[in-house]
Design goal:
42% strand; mainly beta; six-stranded antiparallel β-sheet; single chain
Length: 173
C-alpha cells in the first residue's frame, strides 16, 4: 500500500536533517557546511553561496563538477515501522541534461546498506523540488541518510537548499 503525504502534515514534525539550509558553516576549515560530508573529491567545487538561496541567507553551490559528487547528510535514527518523507530544492545555471538523484538510504547497526530509495530530477534555472516518500523500510534498518548525487558537468553550476526528512508513523493500522 502506498500513502501520499502533503507538506502540511509535517509542519509540527522535527526535521531529521542537521543544518538543512546550510546556514551553519563548519568552523574546522572545511568548505562543507556542518552536518554534511562528501566522500569523493570535491576540492574547490562546493561552497556556501550567500547570493542565492531558496530560503534563509544561503544555499550550497556545486560549481562545475569535473566528476560526480555525492553530498551526504549526517546519519539519523530510523524506525523500521515508519515511513519517511524527504525533499530538497535545487536549481542550476542552465538546463541540465543528466539527472541529479536524491536518495533516502537506510543502514543496519553495522552500517550495511539495507534500503535505497531514489528520485531523479533535471534541474532548471528556477528552484524546483525533488521529493521521496518511502512507504516501508526493512526491519533491520537502524539509521538513515539522504544523499544528493550531482553528475559531472564541466559548465554546470547547481544550487541546493532546504533539505528535509520527516518520520511518518500511522497510529492506526
Amino acid at each position: 500500500m502506498i500513502h501520499l503525504y502533503t507538506r502540511d502534515e509535517f509542519l509540527q514534525k522535527v526535521n531529521l536533517i542537521e543544518n538543512s539550509g546550510f546556514e551553519v558553516v563548519d568552523n574546522l576549515g572545511s568548505e562543507l557546511p556542518e552536518g554534511w560530508i562528501v566522500l569523493n573529491n570535491y576540492q574547490n567545487k562546493i561552497l556556501v553561496d550567500n547570493q542565492v538561496a531558496h530560503s534563509g541567507q544561503q544555499s550550497l553551490k556545486i560549481k562545475e563538477p569535473e566528476a560526480s559528487i555525492n553530498l551526504t547528510s549526517d546519519s539519523f535514527k530510523v524506525n523500521p515501522l515508519c515511513s519517511y518523507y524527504s525533499r530538497c530544492f535545487i536549481r542550476a545555471n542552465k538546463a541540465v541534461d543528466k539527472p541529479v538523484i536524491l536518495y533516502f538510504i537506510t543502514f543496519d547497526e553495522g552500517s550495511k546498506r539495507i534500503n535505497r530509495f531514489s528520485k531523479r530530477v533535471y534541474p532548471t534555472q528556477e528552484w524546483g523540488m525533488v521529493e521521496i516518500t518511502t512507504d516501508a523500510v526493512d526491519l533491520g534498518s537502524a539509521f538513515g541518510r539522504v544523499v544528493l548525487s550531482i553528475p559531472q558537468g564541466s559548465d554546470i553550476d547547481i544550487w541546493v537548499d532546504d533539505f528535509e526528512s520527516y518520520t511518518i508513523c500511522d497510529t492506526n493500522p
